[in-house]
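To illustrate the input format used throughout this study, we show a single complete record. The first block contains the structure-token representation of the backbone; no residue identities are included at this stage. The design step must infer an amino acid for every position from geometry alone.
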């Protein structure tokens, strides 16, 4: 019995699309623009979680991503409570950031001293750790 490759290809593409869509629905939505994060924090009344990381060299950062930020429990909680903001500092040339984004991240690191920062729309509720 001959196999209809067009039929199989269509279903394979549909399967890939469904898996990619499901993954995207559960993926963490990281922002990279602090001003945008502040605006969303105010309009959505959510706390900003600013995370400094070296995505391609920092073992603790990679572990934090894998064991906390990528878990279903955290993703579900974060969706309703946080505006996620990432300031990345990759070292490998292939992962280099756009110079404008790198300057933005450098300014954030200078201002917040490379810590996890939790900030709410209300100035009196802001915390730093």
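Output of the design step:
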């Amino acid at each position: 019995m001959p196999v209809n490759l067009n039929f199989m290809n269509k279903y394979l593409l549909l399967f890939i699309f469904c898996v990619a869509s499901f993954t995207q629905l559960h993926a963490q939505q990281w922002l990279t623009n602090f001003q945008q994060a502040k605006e969303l924090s105010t309009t959505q009344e959510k706390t900003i979680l600013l995370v400094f990381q070296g995505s391609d060299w920092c073992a603790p950062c990679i572990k934090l991503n894998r064991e906390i930020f990528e878990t279903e429990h955290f993703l579900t909680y974060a969706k309703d409570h946080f505006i996620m903001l990432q300031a990345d500092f990759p070292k490998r040339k292939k992962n280099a950031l756009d110079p404008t984004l790198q300057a933005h991240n450098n300014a954030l690191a200078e201002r917040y001293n490379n810590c996890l920062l939790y900030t709410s729309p209300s100035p009196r509720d802001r915390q730093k750790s």
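Structural context for interpreting the output: The two ends are 65 Å apart (CA to CA). Residues 17-26, 124-129 have pLDDT under 50 and may be disordered.
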